[in-house]
Structure formats: structure tokens, C-alpha cells
Amino acid sequence: MNAGHRIPVALIVDDDAMMRLLIRQTLERAGFACHEAGNGREALRLVGSYSPDIILLDVVMPELDGYSTCEQLRLLANASHVPVIMLTGLDDNDSIDRAYQAGATDFISKPINWGVLGYRVRYAMRASHALRDVAKHRSSLETAQRIARLGGWEWGIQQNEHYWSTETYRILGLDPAQVRPSVEAFLACAHEHERESMREAIMELLKTGEFRARIIRIDRPDAELRYVQVQAVATLDTSGTVIRLSGTIQDVTELQEAEQRIRYLAYYDATTGLPNRQSFVEVLGKALGVAKRHHRQLGILALDLDQFKRVNDTLGHGVGDEVLIAAAERLVITLRECDVIALPEQPLEGSEGVARLDGDEFNVLITDLNHYHDAAKVAHRLLDELRKPFKAGGQEVFLTASIGLALYPLDGDDTDSLMRNAGAAMHFAKEQGRDNYQFYSRAMNATALEKLSMESQLRKALERDEFLLHYQPKISASTRRIVGVEALIRWKHPELGMVPPSQFIPLAEETGLIVPIGEWVLRAACEQNFDWQRAGLPRMHVAVNISSAHFRQGLTGSIGEALRTSRLDPALLEVELTESMLMQKVETTLATLHEIKDMGVRLAIDDFGTGYSSLSYLKRFPLDALKIDRSFVKDLPRDPEDAAITKAIIAMAHSLRLQVVAEGVETQEQLAFLQQHCCDVLQGYLFSRPVTAEQLCALLRKDLALETVRA
Amino acid sequence: MGTGDRQAKLDNNALEMIRSISDGSDELLQQVVALFIESTPPLLQDIEAGLNNNELDRLRVAAHTLESSAANLGATDLCEMARRLEAAARAGSLPAELPSFAAVRDEFQAACRALEAELNGAAH
User: Fold this and answer.
1) Minimal C-alpha gap between B37 and chain A (Å)
2) How many helices (DSSP H) and strands (DSSP E) are in chain A?
3) Candidate from A29, A62, A110 with C-beta closest to B21
4) Chain A residue with minimal CA distance to B64?
């Protein structure tokens, strides 16, 4: 039926053979293929076989006239849309009216102007096609709009004329028979929270002609809540005044719901239902924006469950997940109770400021932070709550957590650095022994930097020979003579001067440098004592403190090497080991102790009383001496508890045939108490502070054991 | 009653228009004239019967057809007669001043003579 792609077909219906001949000749010249029918009935019959693109129909015919023929053609499925041109008599207005009423598309009055007939027929056919296309488009547009749930509306401002399409009514859930279109009627549909902003947007649109598409909620009369996208454009007159608004409303509820589902999947952790990392980053970003505008503080907590892997490994992932879910719930509840989460723009529903980043790692955002103490309180509460046992997989599971805290603006002003720094602080908390929280303060930052440079300095210290030993005398309680010395390490840094052991020993332990340092101490102490002995000074032992790392890594070898190179009598070397060192892996410890003992070296237990020694083990260790920890000596003799413990330690040590040494003796009262209770050896400032090798040499020479040398 | 050899006046524009449809040749005109001569006597019979027996519908259809074929061939007078007959038939009454059957028949014959003369190149 498309005239553009094939030869158009005309059906000529006239009882007059001459007319048929002339019309046929004319139309064939104009490019039509023609068929003829001599009367109406024949036309009705032929229309099915020829599928004409246009029908020329004479009005006046015997039997079935043109009007009736046209009416019946219109009832045929294959001819209802075919344009029909009726050939009417001259100036016959009546027949023209009747032709249109019968469904004719156009008319041509006789006598026919043959010169233009071809054009007129072509034109009529094109117009008819165009009309049909428009009709088809309109109906397909309506269908498309219905499917798209797209409604149209118009508002003529000057006449205050409103038009809403059928679909607009349908979307709003309104009955066109009952509601007349108006701005107020539309606003009445909007959810009450959206009404004012929508009104403002319309006012703005009227004023400026600008409108930003928006999605609003519609409360329909049937109580359904729908999401509707509103779009509008303004038509301006030449003076720039808005004269008409037209636009669409589209029901996007399903889209909105799908988006929310996708959003949930993208933003939430499936196991715990908590927001995920991505979500936390966005929430934090928004909270930062608000905090910046209102000059508020924020707290970011990085929380990691300690040794959670163990739960998974021993109890299985099922139980592990149960514990995670329970832990997440505890976090949420605790934070709610702390009342520190206030997200002003409510970026995500259900977000309590807690997110699961991955595995056993959670982040918490504190938005209502008045003082950093508040963040510490929250961290404290969370640690307390997580320490309570979890019931999972039919048993009790015990957990602790480590928390790092970063503060805005103190520790960073973007999501990246705040989350990173909270994480760093959390790792610091882990290093501090877990089950605690640590701030990422600038001080901490500085400590970390210092640690870095200190470490490289410490490595160089050995090569540069910057370490030296000081010696503190040990005095026999009975003879008041020096019976031994404790070697104490010192670091003389070329720029920093004397670095106290408390500052570099922990670092040396952390980095493993403690072992080579320990070897150096052993060798240096042995060599020094050998020198003193060769110089004819009194026979006495030199005591060396041993680190636990060294004790477990080739101590015996180090001692043998030190003795061999120094040629010191092994009996003049004493190694001081701490209680806690000895109580780990007792069988290995015992073996090591015997190896050392077999070399002829003295063994002393240091800082006694602070750990948890088992008496039965102590009995099995080949020890020579026991040093009472200075903390018991400090408050002697006034503190009755310390006094009792000290007396008990001395008695016990003696029963094991151990020599008892008291450290940190500073007063005459302490001395008197210790003497009274038969302590064997005394060490402390009352007799001498740690001194250099030369000074000690002088002390020994002068044999000033009975005198007090105060620092 | 007209004379036996009278030729009707023909509207030359109509004839030229038909010639133009067949690229200026007389071929189509000859066919159309032949059809006119052949198909008109039955119309005249209908007109005569319609007039005599007051068969208005029969008269109207025949007059209408005659009107348009006369118009096509520029037979203006014949066309006018047919038009008046058709209008009267449609109006439902046949007043006395209507052209008589004989007048219509004579005018048809005069038109035929003129058309034959036209085709024979002996117009006027």
C-alpha cells in the first residue's frame, strides 16, 4: 500500500464507458495501473482482488449508486482506509456533502479537468497516506506512552488552561471525570514532604523557564506510593515571558525499586547486612562535607577482630559467619546506645555508621564528636561488648578486637587518609598486644617516623662501635665487698649523645637487632672481666642480661664464643634470665639451661616475683641465684605485703639453695630489712649507680665496698 | 426540429484537453467519439422513456451520464440540456419549459456531425 515503492493501483468505478476510458487514459499517463468497474457491485467485488490504492467513484450509477458503494466499501476490511474520490455533478453541493458523509476522501466535480486529474488523484492518495500515518503514529505513540507509563500535560499560563493526558490521570490514580487538571490538583497528589519543594520548582520554572527533572513521590488515592519523574519545558514569548509549560510525568516506581535493589547489592555486605566499604566511603565523604561546613569533628574507628582466622580455622566458616553476624549486631546496638551517630542527610537507610570492610574488619563513623575522649569512650565500649562471649555453633566463642582511631580534622581531611590512618592506628593497637585501642595522633605519627630513622641508626651503631657497657656493683651483705657486677648496655650516639636503653631496647627487640647486640654485650662483658682479672682485681662475676629472642636463638653458642675469645673463666660469667622466659616451653628451656650450666656459667633468674613461676619448675632448673624484682624492694620495709613477699622469696630461694640478690636498694632502711632477713647480695644506688669500666676499676682498687657512692 | 445537416457548436478546449491526454494525437478522441456515438442512443431511449412515463430516476441517471459525456466532448448545448433534465429529475418534477426529447435527440445528432467533421479535419 505504499505508493512510493510500487505502481499505485486505481480502481475506476463508473457506468459510463467514456468516463472510464478518459479516466484510465489520464491516470495511466500519470503512472497508475487502472482497473475498471462498470457499477458499484462490481467495484465491491474487485476491490478485494486488486487492492487499489485509490478508488474513483462516480456518484450517479444505476442500482447501487456511488454513495451506497462508498459506504459499503468503508465496511470492507481491505478497503476501509483506501481513499475514495467521488465524481460529482457540476456545482452539486448536495452531492458533495453526501459524498463526505458516505466516507469519501475527496470529490472531483464534473466536467473533469483532465489536465489536472492525475495530480489531484496523486495528491489525494498522498494526503490519505499521510493522514493514515499520523493516525497510526498517534495510536502507537499512545501505546508507547502507556507502556512507558508516560503521561503528558500542558499548562497555558495566560488562559490558565490545563491539559492532562489519559496516562497522566492513570499515573496519578485520578478519574478524569472527577478531577479537573490544575497545578493544585497535581500538588495535592505529591507526597506531603515533596509538595513545597515541587511548588517552589514550579514557581522557579515560571520565573526563569528552567526546570530540573526530578523524581517525586506520589500518594495515590488508592494508597499506593509511586515514584514519578517530572519533566517540564517552558515556551516563552518574544518578550521572554513564560506563556506555556508542557511536560511529562513518568511512573518510575519499578525502576526506582530495581535501583534500590541494585544499590543494596552494591552497597551492603551480604553476610552481616552492614554497609560495605564502598558504602562507608560514600557515607564518610558526605559526613566530611557536613563536618567541613559546620566545623565539626569526626571520628573514624577501624576495628579488627583479633585472631578471627582461628575461629574460622577451628570451628569452620559457618560458625565464623555466625560470630561475624553477632559481632556486627553488637556493634550496631552498642553504637546506638552510645548515641554518637547522626547522619544529617541520611545517605543510606539502615546505616548505623558501621560498615564491614572485609573479613573481620569493620569501620565505624562517629559523626557527633565533641571531644576525642568521646571516640575513646566509644572504642572502650565496643571492646567491652566484644569481649563478652559469643554463642555460635553450640559453643561459647571468645573474641577481642583491636581498634584504631583517626580524627577529622586532626588526622586527615579526606576519606582516604582518614581510613588509612585509622587502619594504621589499628595495626599499632595490634602491636601493642591486641584488645586495645590506639589513636592515630600526630605524636604517634612522629613516633613512627622516629622509629624508622632510629632503626637504621641502631643497625649502624654496631658497625660504628657506638655501644658501651656500664657496670653496677653487687655487694655481699655479709662482707660488704663487691662480689660481682651487672653489665648494662649504653648507646653513645654521635649526635644524640647517650640514648637510654628504654628507648632503643624495645626497638632492638622488635627488629631482631637484639640478638647481635646481645652477642656484642656478652663478648664485651667477658673481655672486660678478663682484663680486670688479669689486672689482679678481686675475683668476681660479670652478669649479662639476656633477651628472650637471644635465649631462643643460639644463646649457648654465643656464650661459648664469648668465653673462648675472651678466655674468661666461665665461673666468672653469670647470665640473667627473666622468669617469663624460663616458663615458656619448659623442656627446651631446661635443656638450654643445662647446656649453659655445663659450661660452668652461673645462671640467675631476674626480676623474680613479677611472673608466674611454678615452684616445681624452679626446682628443676640448675639456677645459682635469684634476683628479687625492684618493685618489691621499693616500698620496703613500710609496705607489709611487699615485706611479706620479700621474706617469702628469700626463704624459698634459700630452701632451693639459691643465692638471693636484691635490686634497687636505695635506702638504709631497705638495707637493714634485707640484711635482717638474710638477703645475700645487694645492688642499688645505695652502693653505686652503674659506672664506667674505669670508674668500677677505681672502686675495686680502693675497695670501697663499705662506703656509699651516691650518684 | 433542427435541420438535417446542422453541426453543433463544440467547445474546442474540451477537445484539445482530450488530445493532450494522448500527446496531441486524435487517437483517444476518435475512441471517445466512437463511444459517444455508440453509447448515447440507449441513454436517449432512457431519457425518452423517463420523460414520457415520468420515470424520474431513469431520466436522472441517463441525463447525468449524457451531461458528462457531452461535457467531455465540448458539446456544450447538449450538456446544458442534459443538466436541466437531470436537475429536474432530481427535484422531482418535470416543468413544461424542459427541453423536449426531440430537441435533445437533434442536438445529439448535431454534436455527432460536428465531432465527425472535427475528426475529418473539416471543422466549421
Assistant:
1) 10
2) 26, 26
3) A29
4) A60
How many residues are given for chain A?
711
Q: What share of chain A is helix, strand, coil (3-state, %, to 5)?
A: 50, 25, 30
Closest-CA residue in chain B for A87? Answer: B68
B28/A60 touch (CB, cutoff 8 Å), yes or no: no
- Per DSSP, the residues of A397-438 read E---EEEEEEEETTT-SSHHHHHHHHHHHHHHHHHTTSSSEE
Residue B84 C-alpha cell reads as 436541466
* One-letter identity of residue A165: S
By Cβ distance, the residue of B20, B69, B83 closest to A18 is: B69
For residue A75, give the C-alpha cell.
465496511
Is B61–A18 a contact, with Cβ atoms under 8 angstroms apart? Answer: no
pLDDT in tens, A446-488: 555 466 567 778 888 888 889 999 999 999 998 888 999 999 9
The C-alpha atoms of residue A404 and residue A379 are separated, in whole angstroms, by 9
How many CB atoms within 10 Å of residue A531? Answer: 14
User: Do A18 and B35 count as a contact with CB atoms less than 8 A apart?
Assistant: yes
Give the C-alpha distances (Å, rounded to integers) separating A213 from A169, A201, A202, A232, A256. 20, 10, 11, 7, 15
Mutate which of A18, A29, A67, A92 to disrupt the B interface (most B C-beta within 10 Å)? A18
* pLDDT tens sequence across A84-132: 999 887 566 777 788 888 888 888 888 888 888 888 888 888 877 777 7
A25, B20: Cβ pair inside 8 Å? Answer: no
Question: Residue A111: which of B35, B64, B72 has the nearest Cβ?
Answer: B72
State the Cα–Cα distance between residues A278 and A280, nearest whole angstrom. 5
Q: Is the pTM of this model over 0.80?
A: no
CA dist A420 and A440 (Å) reads: 10
